[in-house]
Amino acid sequence: MTQLDPVVMDAAAHFQNSTLRERIVEHVFVGQALKALWCRGVVDVEVLRSEFDAHGYDLVMARAETVRHIQFKTGSTVKPGEVSVSTTLAAKPSGCVLWIRVTPQLDMGPYFWFGGAPGQPLPSLAEYPSPRRPTHNKAGERPLRKNHRLIPGKAFSLLPTMDAVLDELFSPQREVS
After folding, report:
1. Where are the domains of the chain?
2. Is the dihedral of CA 168, 174, 176, 177 positive or negative?
3. What's domain 11-133+146-170's architecture?
4. Chunked in runs of 10, what are the mean pLDDT values of the chain (177 residues)?
5. How far apart are CA 12 and CA 18, in angstroms?
6. What number of H helices and E strands is found in the chain?
7. Are strands 66-75 and 96-102 parallel, antiparallel or unpaired?
8. Of 61, 93, 71, 78, residue with least CA distance to 151
């Protein structure tokens, strides 16, 4: 066996290398999105990365007047559970959350969408509760994350393919519910 032979990564490896895993998912998403756009004849898309997640998004994709601030969430379950979303994402003109199912081999899809039409903000977050911080403070408590809301998985719409994701991101003709 050489160092480059395939191995099966165990669940601990995904947790212990979560930052690397997150970067791989982002890079693969961008590559697949740009490839699908290329196949549609679309070559005028800008991709900008956030240096750190302080403003509620991981990636910005822009085409013509549409600028999408995208927050990625991932999981290995069939559908998303509750998802913590920053309220600062709601202040962006076309903010959205894309939950991506990721297999242990880092295959991606299907996708789940929480957002509005191009040019429209996120649906209102006001009705959703604030989640607790994942870590304890010095007093051993998990205080509320005041600038986050806990969005239930049922608020997300299934997008089975990358083409469906691109339609949500950039197609002004889609029907708004």
Report:
1. 11-133+146-170
2. negative
3. 3-Layer(aba) Sandwich (3.40)
4. 64 70 92 95 92 84 94 91 93 94 92 94 93 89 91 96 96 53
5. 10
6. 3, 8
7. parallel
8. 71
